[in-house]
Amino acid sequence: MSLQHAIGLEVRDVLARSDLYERAGKDQHAFCIRVGRSYPYDVRVLANVRPNSYWMDTMLHEFGHAVYDKYINPSLPYLLRSVAHISSTEAIALMMGSLAEDPTWLSSVAELPREELERGHERLLLSSRADNLVFIR
Ligand SMILES: [Zn+2]
Fold this sequence. Notes:
Strand order of the largest sheet: 1-2
Bound molecules: zinc ion
Distance between the termini: 40 Å
Oligomer: single chain
Helix content: 40-55%
């Protein structure tokens, strides 16, 4: 099993339907949306991805929402095929987004060289603390 499949949350179908890159006139934010409640679910992400850690965090966050939505039990009654509460989907998204500052994930999945991680360890820690401090408010 490759690393990309290690946790069993397939997102290639969501990626194929998503609009990830900047263009003139596009919404500047990022979000995940599920269109309707019919199964298989139509889950999409809109983003304005740039190659930096901010957007890595954002993509992990939005795809956290995406897998939460995608794997809602389709045998539930139609009206219950939604998030249990906004805080439950947000918790999963925050957990996924936090991987962008996790040295183990950065090394094993993002394949950031160990030397680079060691050089940036202090900055990564400070950045993580600052993010959490701002977000908790
Ligand atoms: Zn969110």
